[in-house]
Structure formats: C-alpha cells, structure tokens
Amino acid sequence: MCSTYLGIMPVKGESLIGSMIKLKWLRENMLELPEEPSQEQLHAHCRAYILGLIGGVLMPDKTGNKVHLMYLSLLINLRKGEDISLC
Question: Please, which domain of life does this record's source organism belong to (predicted)?
Fold first, then answer.
C-alpha cells in the first residue's frame, strides 16, 4: 500500500512497524517535492503530509512518533475528501 500510494516503501521493522509508519520517515522521505512533480508525485506528497498531520497533531499514538496506515486508505482518492469524515 505504501509503495502504491506514497511512491516509496519504508523498511519493515525499521520505519514500518506492524501497520504503523514512523513520522520521522515521512519527514525524511516525503518533505521535499521534486521541482516539476507529476500528478502522482504531487498526490503522494499530499498523502504523506496529511498522514503526518493525522499522526503528529490530530490523532497521535501513545509515543507520538508513528501513524497508523489505516488512514492512508482514506487518502487514496484525494478528490473524494469532502465525502469522508474522520470524526
């Protein structure tokens, strides 16, 4: 799921722990957008940014350094965002 919707796969056991991804990995790998991104790259970076907001600000886990990948499934189609409520 990560490689499909984020464009890159985190290392299992290091950045991907179970079904949670470390926020540090998101910052290190998804912070900078290429100079002329494709539509897919732009969407991947938007998903990563929103995941970071969810895991770091809106709904942090107990440690505050990981976000559950279940939220990524809600970000697959960014154009349907108005139909989804996270509350």
Answer: Eukaryota
